[in-house]
From TrEMBL:
Official protein name in the record: Non-homologous end joining protein Ku
Gene that specifies this protein: ku
Listed SUPFAM superfamilies: SPOC domain-like
CDD domains: KU_like (cd00789)
Classification lineage: Bacteria, Bacillati, Bacillota, Bacilli, Bacillales
Subunit annotation: Homodimer. Interacts with LigD.
Keyword DNA-binding (UniProt): yes
Amino acid sequence: MRTMWKGSIQFGLVYIPIKLYTATEDKDIKLRMLHKDCMAPINYTRTCSKCGKAVTPEEIIKAYEYAPEQFVPISEQELNELQDDSSKSIEIINFVNLSEIDPIYFEKSYFIGPDSGQGLRAFSLLRQTISDSDKIGLANIIIRAKQHLAAIRSYGNGMLLETLYYPDEVRSMNEVPGLSDIAPENAPKEVEIASQLVGQLTTEFKPDNYKDDYRLKMQKLIENKVAGIIPQEKKDAPRQKNVVDLLAALEASVRETKPKRRAPRRKKTV
């Protein structure tokens, strides 16, 4: 597993050397763009929108567009100076209950590991302290020139750091069109049947029970095409009925999801 960030966690006056590792991976199947006639990949070149000249990486600078077609350049040195010595230190500033953070704030997860055997006792102590307290630590961290709010929590025999969006990065629900047209209350009978449907679909969360069906179908399609197997034409799926009666749709859903009873076993006659 490749290290993607190296620094330390500051817990009071205790500094714990750590490394971060990406905890998740994107398994989407990437498709290339080809020229239809030559079946060769398409190359993309960076060109100047004004003179049309192809530009090399050495000729590219960064800038901020503060008005239409008006830019202020910012050098790499100026960007680096914005990051002080604390850019490689994660200072825990507060402890909160995990249940108080709405999932909309969570962005990306990273495993936290000790750095080359250094500070193992302090690392273990922090993990146990967080685990015993049923709390998570809130901290700031700079990753790839961007500051993130982060939640640090115990996870298995280690710890997990999850970057969070800042409040001003989360859009307001009031921006969603149509919400003001929703009726404030629903019919009691509809609520009762909908609650029954939720009860029948409720189960223990087991991640292994879920899979990316689309990706598996894509892999199978690619394997068949590589092997020269011609895909069979898929029959049109039956169209779903547009049920206007909400209550009738709920009742039908309850019938379809109702667990089937097993037939009682017959007793053996001697």
